[in-house]
Amino acid sequence: MIENRPILTVFTHIIMILGVALIALPIWITFVAASHDEIRMLQAPIPMLPGSHFVENFKQALFGAGLSGDQTPVWRMLLNSLAMALMISFGKISISLISAFAIVYFKFPFRMGFFWMIFITLMLPVEVRILPTFEVVANLGMLNSYWGLSIPLIASATATFMFRQVFLTIPDEMLESARIDGAGPMRFFWDILLPLSRTNIAALFVILFIFGWNQYLWPLLITTDTDMTTIVMSIKQMLESAEQSPQWNIIMMTALLAMLPPILVVVGMQKLFVQGLTETDK
Amino acid sequence: MLKRVHFPSSPLPYLLVAPQIIITLVFFMWPASQALYQSLLVEDAFGLSTEFVWFENFTYLASDSHYLDAFWRTAIFSFLVAFMSMSVALILAGFADRVIKGATVYRTLLIWPYAVAPVLAGALWVFMFNPTLGIFPYLLDMIGVNWNHYLNGTQAMGLVIAAAAWKQVAYNFLFYLAAMQSIPRGVIEAAAIDGAGPVKRFTTIIIPLVSPTTFFLLVINLVYAFFETFGIIHVVTQGGPAASTTILVYKVFNDGFVGLDLGGSAAQSVVLMVIVIVMTMVQFKYVEKKVEY
Amino acid sequence: MAEIKLDNLIKAYGKVEVLHHIEGDIHDGEFIVIVGPSGCGKSTLLRMVAGLETITSGTISIGGKVVNKLEPADRDIAMVFQNYALYPHMTVYENMAYGLKIRKIPKDEIKRRVEEAADILEIREYLDRRPRQLSGGQRQRVAMGRAIVREPSVFLFDEPLSNLDAKLRVQMRLEIRKLQKRLGVTSIYVTHDQVEAMTLGDRLMVLNGGYVEQFGTPIELYQKPASLFVAGFIGSPSMNFMDADISNGVATLANGAKLKLSSKFNGPATLGIRPEHLVADDKGAIKVTVDMLEQLGANTLVHGILDGTQTSFVVSLDGIQVAETGSNQTFYAEKDSFHLFDKETGKRIVE
Question: Which residue among A208, B252, C96, C128 has the highest number of C-beta atoms inside a 10 angstrom radius?
């Protein structure tokens, strides 16, 4: 800062605190709502300070049968979400790593053709091909399965581009040296390329985990079995049932549980997250 | 593009690209071509016969006032979301750039909405604005505003825009802050010596210098508003009241899965596809430009 | 140990031929330096020997075996790269052991070899460090160590000293030379630096534009350069060249000056004389208008223009000398010290 005026510094901090308050407000209200009992949450105005029922609500949301009797417990939904998020992120990273490896380190017929095919996936988000993709998954018998939840989403142009970029910055001599040392392609991949791309993989993992965890439209389409419901999907169903039995404390606790894993990942791995964000979105 | 030295030719590279290519073909290329094909068909109400109608579905869309309304609504929605989230992020980043102590603390506190799924963002905002319970309708009532986004289309639109913009502030903030921190200190100091105060420096030096980021974020935010806000609309308003928050993505879903109008939904998909392709190309053109800096 | 034979080697990228009919026999234990300006194809030639570039036509044999189709790993070579190409995520020990591990050499044997090499190169205390914790000179040693532990029959060096500062370069140059003599391994070394080439090589292969200009000992190259290019490239400062008409052992320069030669050649030619072979002499026939002096202490370089022409001229005089800018100085050279080159082809004229 150039001006050394305390007033300005104080003003800056005030604005930042207001900004943080504005951004954090919805999450705060969620937290507060999740810490009161059901009765309190039916009286307007709703409280702005935390109550004493947090642990109780936590237990009820996590292990109770949710709101209506036929619903899957929240812990099961969290597991579904975790499975989906992990399968999507590992799947995307693995297939992007190996295809970027092939495209950068081998010269073979149709190399560029494959590259452009991967590129085109960038222009075809799920939203523009909903119905036919649903039909394909249905025909393959992948509805209501983890495979159906993850595999159709794991093609990734951005991840492939990012790894291609990373590999291109690794000096050619690394490969030459490895070849003189007698390393074959897969050995080079495991011993040299993977360790050298470690931080990029971690950064991408942070982004992809959040992407996978937060999927909504896709699981909504291909899961009809309540056992396969993901936590993010369940919020919508809960809000609908709230019209009959408005247990806002449980709904908001569930919302909190749904947000928590990705928030922990972002805040806990902030540096990797920022790196992953700025590297992939280019 | 390619390394100077390669591994000797073998079937290995084909095996390596195979998983990605198979998934691309099965879940991307084939469905997209199906959408293209179906957009040229009309199916009768019972799904018993289909008829090839060339571009009839498209000409119908072009004359369908519901669709055209949705189109303009989407445009307005997207620009408002982009504008609001980007301006809040720009201002916050401008202040954060001035903070010496605690900048990372602020950053940590500002970035978490990025991790919140759009549908959850919608759920939080719909709770805050719940007409009977929410804190904001309560406050608004005190100043004489009656809030009910289940009945009032404008209020419903305002709510989805706020929720969508809120979620995106974190992302924009990170990019703006990074852009500002990469401006050489010397430039700012030179402006200060030239007599520009903090506000003047922000408007005449910093904002022009981060304009490449602004353009990049504009494209990203428009794409976000077009496609990723489905969850918000679905949970907050379900496109209502009276279609006042039905944006294109929501309409594709609604007409296809709920209305079961296959040809019409496919034609809408094709229009969306064209929009994404244009936006992707604009984005890549920008990346090319960025390389020159 | 092995001898290397390059037989009619051609390298082309598409239709563009970058190396033309390269021939050369390298004896067992010899230190060969390939030298030339950038873009002359010297690195390409080395990489063809290594197996990192394909051979368009011709053959390379190492130890009597044609290696054209062999993978780099199967050619019994080791290479030191310009940027060292150390694996950044491995320790010095792991870097040196990697190639041996792939060859499935027993662990204790690997340990023995790595430690032995580390002792030779005095890097034993760095074995647990990673490359980025080392200085440039230390990395250079690790790169050499990685080559040594392989116990190959050929060492290949691709401008290994060009990333070091001037002082370290001189020191490492001597060490490489000593090491090669001690191990007795046939070596090919690529550089663009003619001083490095002269001091290191048993023989030098001078490459220019993809052609071998000359292949011989440093002294041969200095005393009998085969072409204008070699004459100008080897030796510092460069040889002076003048147009001359020669008849009956007398060269007539463009400005009319006459010089005695020992050659029996008659006709027009390019006459060459090294700056250090000229001495100041009032009766000398070579008249130079002085432009500038470079005082190097041990000697003085006089830069000027050959009187009456546009030809620039350099003279190296012993000790500290003084001359006014713009003054005329005359110089003399022994008749045996002139070199004659064909005006058309630039080749050395030999009777």
Answer: C96
pLDDT tens figures, A89-118: 999 999 999 999 999 998 888 888 898 888
The residue range of the domain holding B143 is 69-290
Q: Does A169 touch chain C (CB under 8 A)?
A: no
In a domain, B19, yes or no: no
Mutate to test the interface with C, among A105, A170, A176, A180 (most CBs of C within 10 A): A180
ipTM over 0.85: yes
Measure CA B249 to chain center: 11
E strand or H helix at C212: strand C211-216
Closest of B239, B246, B249 to residue B271, by C-alpha: B249
Residue C313 is encoded by which pair of tokens? 């001229």
CATH of residue B245's domain is 1.10.3720.10
- Would B138 be classed as within a structural domain? yes
Q: CB distance from C72 to chain A under 8 Å?
A: yes
Tell me what the pLDDT averaged over chain A comes to: 85
- C52 vs B contacts (CB less than 8 Å): 5
Interface test with A, best of C48, C79, C155 (most A CBs within 10 A): C79
Query: pLDDT tens, position by position, for chain A (282 residues)?
Result: 566 677 888 888 898 999 999 888 999 998 988 888 877 877 777 788 888 888 888 888 787 755 555 567 888 889 999 999 999 999 999 999 999 999 999 888 888 889 888 888 877 887 778 788 888 999 998 888 899 889 988 888 888 988 998 898 888 889 999 989 988 899 999 999 999 998 889 988 988 999 999 999 889 888 888 888 888 888 888 888 777 767 888 888 889 999 999 999 988 888 888 887 777 654
Query: Could you tell me the pTM of the whole model?
Result: 0.84
The answer to whether C69 faces chain B, any CB pair under 8 Å, is no
Q: Which residues of A touch C82 (CB under 8 A)?
A: 173
CA distance A231 to A110: 42
Among A residues 96-115, those touching chain B with beta carbons less than 8 Å apart: 96, 98-99, 101-108, 111, 114
Residue A227 is classified by DSSP as G
Number of structural domains chain B divides into: 1
Identity at C96, one-letter amino acid code: M
Give which of C87, C113, B233 is closest to A236, Cα–Cα: B233
Rounded distance between C-alpha atoms, residue C156 and residue C152, angstroms: 10
Q: Identify whether the C-beta of residue C164 lies closer than 8 Å to the C-beta of residue C143.
A: no
Tell whether A242 is covered by a domain: yes
- The residue type of C129 is R
Alpha-carbon gap, residue B79 to B70, rounded angstroms:
14
Q: Does residue A15 lie in a domain region?
A: no
Please say whether the beta carbons of B184 and B174 come within 8 A. Answer: no
